[in-house]
Design brief:
seven-stranded parallel sheet, about 350 residues
Length: about 350
Protein backbone atom coordinates (compact mmCIF):
# COMPACT_ATOMS: atom_id res chain seq x y z
CA UNK A 1 0.00 0.00 0.00
CA UNK A 2 1.20 3.50 -0.86
CA UNK A 3 0.25 6.39 1.43
CA UNK A 4 -0.51 9.81 -0.06
CA UNK A 5 1.42 12.65 1.55
CA UNK A 6 1.13 16.42 1.84
CA UNK A 7 3.91 18.62 3.24
CA UNK A 8 3.06 22.09 4.56
CA UNK A 9 5.89 24.59 4.78
CA UNK A 10 7.62 22.87 1.88
CA UNK A 11 9.77 25.85 0.90
CA UNK A 12 11.66 25.93 4.24
CA UNK A 13 14.62 23.92 5.50
CA UNK A 14 12.60 21.40 7.52
CA UNK A 15 10.06 21.02 4.73
CA UNK A 16 12.83 20.53 2.20
CA UNK A 17 14.46 17.84 4.31
CA UNK A 18 11.14 16.06 4.74
CA UNK A 19 10.68 16.07 0.97
CA UNK A 20 14.24 14.88 0.32
CA UNK A 21 13.69 11.81 2.49
CA UNK A 22 10.11 11.20 1.39
CA UNK A 23 11.11 11.31 -2.29
CA UNK A 24 12.91 7.97 -1.88
CA UNK A 25 10.55 6.40 0.66
CA UNK A 26 9.09 3.15 -0.70
CA UNK A 27 5.68 3.59 0.95
CA UNK A 28 4.93 7.30 0.51
CA UNK A 29 3.82 9.33 -2.50
CA UNK A 30 4.18 13.11 -2.30
CA UNK A 31 1.08 14.66 -3.85
CA UNK A 32 0.80 18.14 -2.36
CA UNK A 33 3.31 20.75 -1.19
CA UNK A 34 2.22 24.02 0.38
CA UNK A 35 3.72 27.29 1.51
CA UNK A 36 2.62 30.75 2.66
CA UNK A 37 4.26 33.64 0.84
CA UNK A 38 5.74 31.30 -1.77
CA UNK A 39 2.41 29.78 -2.79
CA UNK A 40 2.10 29.62 -6.58
CA UNK A 41 5.83 29.15 -7.12
CA UNK A 42 7.37 25.97 -8.53
CA UNK A 43 8.79 23.91 -5.67
CA UNK A 44 12.08 23.64 -7.54
CA UNK A 45 12.52 27.42 -7.32
CA UNK A 46 12.92 27.11 -3.53
CA UNK A 47 14.32 23.56 -3.26
CA UNK A 48 16.58 23.35 -6.35
CA UNK A 49 18.28 20.22 -5.01
CA UNK A 50 15.04 18.21 -5.21
CA UNK A 51 15.21 17.44 -8.93
CA UNK A 52 12.81 14.49 -8.80
CA UNK A 53 10.08 16.78 -7.45
CA UNK A 54 10.37 19.46 -10.14
CA UNK A 55 6.81 18.76 -11.28
CA UNK A 56 5.29 20.05 -8.01
CA UNK A 57 3.92 23.55 -7.45
CA UNK A 58 3.49 25.14 -4.04
CA UNK A 59 -0.12 25.83 -3.04
CA UNK A 60 -1.55 27.68 -0.05
CA UNK A 61 -1.15 26.15 3.42
CA UNK A 62 -4.81 25.65 4.25
CA UNK A 63 -6.69 22.76 5.81
CA UNK A 64 -8.65 22.44 2.57
CA UNK A 65 -5.48 21.86 0.52
CA UNK A 66 -4.04 19.43 3.09
CA UNK A 67 -7.18 17.35 3.63
CA UNK A 68 -7.71 14.19 1.60
CA UNK A 69 -4.22 12.78 2.17
CA UNK A 70 -3.27 9.78 4.28
CA UNK A 71 -0.37 11.63 5.93
CA UNK A 72 0.22 15.36 6.49
CA UNK A 73 3.57 16.73 7.65
CA UNK A 74 3.45 20.27 9.06
CA UNK A 75 6.74 22.16 8.85
CA UNK A 76 5.32 25.52 9.88
CA UNK A 77 6.49 28.29 12.24
CA UNK A 78 5.76 27.77 15.93
CA UNK A 79 2.25 28.81 16.85
CA UNK A 80 0.77 28.33 13.37
CA UNK A 81 0.25 24.58 12.97
CA UNK A 82 -2.21 24.12 15.85
CA UNK A 83 -5.10 25.89 14.16
CA UNK A 84 -4.60 24.08 10.84
CA UNK A 85 -4.18 20.69 12.50
CA UNK A 86 -7.45 21.13 14.38
CA UNK A 87 -9.28 21.27 11.04
CA UNK A 88 -7.81 18.06 9.60
CA UNK A 89 -9.72 14.76 9.71
CA UNK A 90 -9.21 12.67 12.83
CA UNK A 91 -8.19 9.63 10.80
CA UNK A 92 -5.43 11.48 8.93
CA UNK A 93 -1.94 10.92 10.32
CA UNK A 94 -0.68 14.42 11.13
CA UNK A 95 2.96 14.94 12.10
CA UNK A 96 3.83 18.40 13.41
CA UNK A 97 7.49 19.36 13.00
CA UNK A 98 6.86 22.59 14.91
CA UNK A 99 6.54 23.09 18.65
CA UNK A 100 2.77 23.46 18.94
CA UNK A 101 2.06 19.97 20.29
CA UNK A 102 5.26 19.02 22.16
CA UNK A 103 4.66 20.41 25.64
CA UNK A 104 2.22 18.77 28.03
CA UNK A 105 2.01 21.60 30.56
CA UNK A 106 0.13 24.73 29.38
CA UNK A 107 2.21 26.75 31.86
CA UNK A 108 5.41 25.73 30.06
CA UNK A 109 3.89 26.78 26.75
CA UNK A 110 2.81 30.12 28.16
CA UNK A 111 6.22 30.79 29.71
CA UNK A 112 8.37 29.90 26.69
CA UNK A 113 6.12 30.42 23.64
CA UNK A 114 2.91 32.25 24.55
CA UNK A 115 -0.43 32.18 22.79
CA UNK A 116 -2.92 29.32 22.69
CA UNK A 117 -1.79 25.91 23.91
CA UNK A 118 -3.06 23.23 21.53
CA UNK A 119 -2.39 20.20 23.73
CA UNK A 120 0.30 17.52 23.58
CA UNK A 121 0.52 14.77 20.95
CA UNK A 122 2.53 11.53 20.95
CA UNK A 123 6.16 12.63 21.14
CA UNK A 124 8.23 11.67 18.12
CA UNK A 125 11.43 10.31 19.68
CA UNK A 126 10.94 6.52 19.54
CA UNK A 127 14.19 5.74 21.38
CA UNK A 128 13.42 7.80 24.49
CA UNK A 129 13.01 5.87 27.75
CA UNK A 130 9.60 6.76 29.21
CA UNK A 131 8.95 4.43 32.15
CA UNK A 132 10.64 2.69 35.05
CA UNK A 133 10.63 -0.67 33.27
CA UNK A 134 12.61 0.77 30.35
CA UNK A 135 9.70 1.06 27.92
CA UNK A 136 10.54 3.31 24.98
CA UNK A 137 8.42 6.06 23.47
CA UNK A 138 7.78 4.05 20.29
CA UNK A 139 5.13 2.04 22.15
CA UNK A 140 3.10 5.26 22.51
CA UNK A 141 3.39 6.08 18.80
CA UNK A 142 1.96 2.82 17.43
CA UNK A 143 -1.45 3.44 15.84
CA UNK A 144 -1.70 7.12 16.75
CA UNK A 145 -2.86 9.73 14.25
CA UNK A 146 -1.18 12.73 15.89
CA UNK A 147 2.60 13.01 16.38
CA UNK A 148 4.72 15.92 17.63
CA UNK A 149 8.19 15.78 16.11
CA UNK A 150 10.83 16.89 18.63
CA UNK A 151 12.92 19.98 18.97
CA UNK A 152 16.34 19.08 17.56
CA UNK A 153 18.30 20.34 20.57
CA UNK A 154 15.78 18.80 22.95
CA UNK A 155 16.03 15.32 21.48
CA UNK A 156 19.84 15.55 21.45
CA UNK A 157 20.13 16.39 25.15
CA UNK A 158 17.32 14.03 26.18
CA UNK A 159 18.79 11.00 24.40
CA UNK A 160 22.22 11.84 25.80
CA UNK A 161 21.10 11.90 29.44
CA UNK A 162 18.07 9.61 29.72
CA UNK A 163 20.06 6.38 30.23
CA UNK A 164 21.86 7.74 33.30
CA UNK A 165 18.67 9.20 34.77
CA UNK A 166 16.75 5.97 34.23
CA UNK A 167 19.52 3.80 35.71
CA UNK A 168 19.78 6.08 38.75
CA UNK A 169 23.52 6.62 38.42
CA UNK A 170 23.41 10.38 37.82
CA UNK A 171 21.90 13.26 39.75
CA UNK A 172 19.01 15.12 38.17
CA UNK A 173 20.11 18.43 39.68
CA UNK A 174 22.92 20.55 38.19
CA UNK A 175 22.80 19.19 34.64
CA UNK A 176 24.79 21.31 32.19
CA UNK A 177 24.49 21.19 28.40
CA UNK A 178 26.43 23.28 25.89
CA UNK A 179 25.63 22.77 22.22
CA UNK A 180 27.38 23.72 19.00
CA UNK A 181 24.52 24.24 16.55
CA UNK A 182 24.25 24.91 12.82
CA UNK A 183 22.01 27.88 11.94
CA UNK A 184 19.69 25.85 9.68
CA UNK A 185 17.85 24.84 12.84
CA UNK A 186 16.42 28.37 12.96
CA UNK A 187 14.86 28.07 9.50
CA UNK A 188 15.19 30.35 6.49
CA UNK A 189 14.03 33.53 8.21
CA UNK A 190 16.17 36.51 7.23
CA UNK A 191 17.74 37.81 10.45
CA UNK A 192 21.03 39.59 10.96
CA UNK A 193 22.43 37.01 13.39
CA UNK A 194 22.13 34.29 10.72
CA UNK A 195 23.91 36.16 7.92
CA UNK A 196 27.13 34.56 6.69
CA UNK A 197 29.06 37.73 7.55
CA UNK A 198 27.95 37.37 11.17
CA UNK A 199 28.52 33.61 11.50
CA UNK A 200 31.62 32.84 9.45
CA UNK A 201 34.71 32.94 11.63
CA UNK A 202 32.71 33.27 14.83
CA UNK A 203 30.94 31.25 17.54
CA UNK A 204 27.79 33.01 18.75
CA UNK A 205 25.93 32.02 21.95
CA UNK A 206 22.21 32.74 22.07
CA UNK A 207 19.23 32.22 24.40
CA UNK A 208 21.63 32.32 27.36
CA UNK A 209 20.47 32.13 30.96
CA UNK A 210 17.66 29.60 30.83
CA UNK A 211 15.59 31.25 28.10
CA UNK A 212 15.80 28.68 25.29
CA UNK A 213 12.45 27.18 24.33
CA UNK A 214 13.72 23.61 24.34
CA UNK A 215 14.46 23.63 28.08
CA UNK A 216 10.94 22.62 29.27
CA UNK A 217 10.84 19.97 26.54
CA UNK A 218 14.09 18.44 27.83
CA UNK A 219 12.88 18.54 31.43
CA UNK A 220 9.62 16.89 30.39
CA UNK A 221 11.59 14.10 28.69
CA UNK A 222 13.91 13.57 31.66
CA UNK A 223 10.93 13.30 34.01
CA UNK A 224 9.59 10.49 31.84
CA UNK A 225 12.98 8.78 32.13
CA UNK A 226 12.75 8.88 35.93
CA UNK A 227 13.68 12.37 37.13
CA UNK A 228 11.42 14.26 39.53
CA UNK A 229 12.45 17.92 39.24
CA UNK A 230 15.53 18.13 36.98
CA UNK A 231 17.45 21.38 36.72
CA UNK A 232 19.29 22.24 33.54
CA UNK A 233 21.73 24.92 32.46
CA UNK A 234 21.39 24.96 28.67
CA UNK A 235 23.53 27.09 26.34
CA UNK A 236 23.39 26.76 22.54
CA UNK A 237 26.14 28.29 20.40
CA UNK A 238 25.77 29.01 16.68
CA UNK A 239 28.85 27.86 14.79
CA UNK A 240 29.76 28.18 11.09
CA UNK A 241 28.38 24.89 9.78
CA UNK A 242 25.10 24.79 7.89
CA UNK A 243 23.71 21.78 9.76
CA UNK A 244 24.54 19.58 12.73
CA UNK A 245 24.47 19.58 16.54
CA UNK A 246 27.27 18.59 18.88
CA UNK A 247 25.77 18.45 22.37
CA UNK A 248 28.11 18.15 25.36
CA UNK A 249 26.09 17.37 28.47
CA UNK A 250 27.39 16.66 31.97
CA UNK A 251 25.74 15.56 35.21
CA UNK A 252 26.93 14.64 38.68
CA UNK A 253 27.32 10.89 39.24
CA UNK A 254 26.23 9.00 42.33
CA UNK A 255 29.01 7.88 44.72
CA UNK A 256 30.84 4.73 43.68
CA UNK A 257 29.87 4.81 40.01
CA UNK A 258 32.70 3.58 37.77
CA UNK A 259 33.65 4.39 34.19
CA UNK A 260 32.85 0.83 33.17
CA UNK A 261 29.40 1.08 34.74
CA UNK A 262 28.71 4.33 32.89
CA UNK A 263 29.68 2.78 29.56
CA UNK A 264 27.58 -0.32 30.20
CA UNK A 265 24.47 1.69 31.17
CA UNK A 266 24.51 3.73 27.97
CA UNK A 267 25.27 0.74 25.77
CA UNK A 268 22.44 -1.27 27.32
CA UNK A 269 19.96 1.57 26.81
CA UNK A 270 20.49 1.65 23.05
CA UNK A 271 21.79 -1.82 22.19
CA UNK A 272 18.81 -2.70 19.98
CA UNK A 273 18.25 0.73 18.43
CA UNK A 274 18.77 0.97 14.66
CA UNK A 275 19.65 4.66 14.69
CA UNK A 276 21.31 5.34 18.08
CA UNK A 277 24.84 4.06 18.53
CA UNK A 278 27.04 4.37 21.62
CA UNK A 279 30.69 4.60 20.65
CA UNK A 280 33.44 2.52 22.29
CA UNK A 281 34.95 3.90 25.50
CA UNK A 282 37.47 6.63 24.83
CA UNK A 283 35.92 7.85 21.58
CA UNK A 284 33.59 10.74 20.83
CA UNK A 285 31.64 11.66 17.67
CA UNK A 286 31.89 14.53 15.22
CA UNK A 287 28.99 16.22 13.48
CA UNK A 288 30.63 15.29 10.16
CA UNK A 289 29.94 11.62 10.96
CA UNK A 290 26.14 12.01 10.93
CA UNK A 291 25.42 14.58 8.24
CA UNK A 292 22.64 13.47 5.93
CA UNK A 293 21.73 10.49 8.13
CA UNK A 294 19.15 9.51 10.72
CA UNK A 295 22.00 8.48 13.00
CA UNK A 296 22.69 9.50 16.60
CA UNK A 297 26.23 8.93 17.84
CA UNK A 298 27.03 9.16 21.55
CA UNK A 299 30.36 9.11 23.35
CA UNK A 300 30.28 8.82 27.13
CA UNK A 301 33.00 9.16 29.78
CA UNK A 302 33.41 9.52 33.53
CA UNK A 303 35.28 12.60 34.74
CA UNK A 304 36.26 11.07 38.07
CA UNK A 305 38.03 14.18 39.37
CA UNK A 306 34.93 16.30 38.84
CA UNK A 307 32.51 13.54 39.80
CA UNK A 308 30.56 13.98 36.59
CA UNK A 309 29.50 11.92 33.60
CA UNK A 310 30.27 13.57 30.27
CA UNK A 311 28.22 12.75 27.17
CA UNK A 312 29.02 14.02 23.68
CA UNK A 313 26.22 13.48 21.16
CA UNK A 314 26.18 14.28 17.44
CA UNK A 315 23.13 14.49 15.18
CA UNK A 316 22.14 16.19 11.96
CA UNK A 317 19.59 18.73 13.18
CA UNK A 318 17.56 18.67 9.96
CA UNK A 319 17.62 14.90 9.47
CA UNK A 320 17.41 13.01 12.77
CA UNK A 321 16.71 16.22 14.67
CA UNK A 322 13.53 16.97 12.73
CA UNK A 323 12.55 15.34 9.42
CA UNK A 324 14.00 11.89 10.09
CA UNK A 325 12.37 11.70 13.51
CA UNK A 326 9.05 12.73 11.95
CA UNK A 327 9.23 10.07 9.23
CA UNK A 328 10.55 7.38 11.60
CA UNK A 329 7.59 8.06 13.89
CA UNK A 330 5.16 8.03 10.96
CA UNK A 331 6.54 4.63 9.94
CA UNK A 332 5.79 3.31 13.43
CA UNK A 333 2.31 4.81 13.56
CA UNK A 334 1.37 3.26 10.22
CA UNK A 335 2.80 -0.18 11.01
CA UNK A 336 5.60 0.11 8.44
CA UNK A 337 9.19 -0.95 9.00
CA UNK A 338 10.60 1.67 11.36
CA UNK A 339 13.70 2.10 9.23
CA UNK A 340 11.84 2.46 5.90
CA UNK A 341 13.22 5.28 3.77
CA UNK A 342 15.80 6.29 6.39
CA UNK A 343 19.57 6.02 6.11
CA UNK A 344 22.25 5.48 8.75
CA UNK A 345 24.97 6.45 6.28
CA UNK A 346 26.08 10.06 6.19
CA UNK A 347 27.92 12.02 3.51
CA UNK A 348 31.63 12.84 3.51
CA UNK A 349 33.70 14.88 3.22
Amino acid sequence: MTFSVAVAGASGYAGGELLRILADHPDFEIRTVTAHQNAGHPLIAHQPHLRSLAHLTLTESTAEKLSGHDVVFLALPHGTSGAIAAQLPADTLVVDAGADHRLEDPADWAAFYGGEHHGAWAYGVPELIVSADGTKQRSRIVGTTRIAAPGCNASAVSLALAPGIHAGIVEEQDIVSVLAVGPSGAGKSLKTMYLASEILGSANPYAVGGTHRHIPEIQQNLRKAGATAPTLSFTPVLVPMSRGILATSTARVKPGVTAQQVQEVWEAAYVDEPFVQVLPAGTVPRTADVLGANTVLIGVALDAAAGRVVTVLAIDNLYKGTAGAAIQSANIALGLAETAGLSVNGVAP
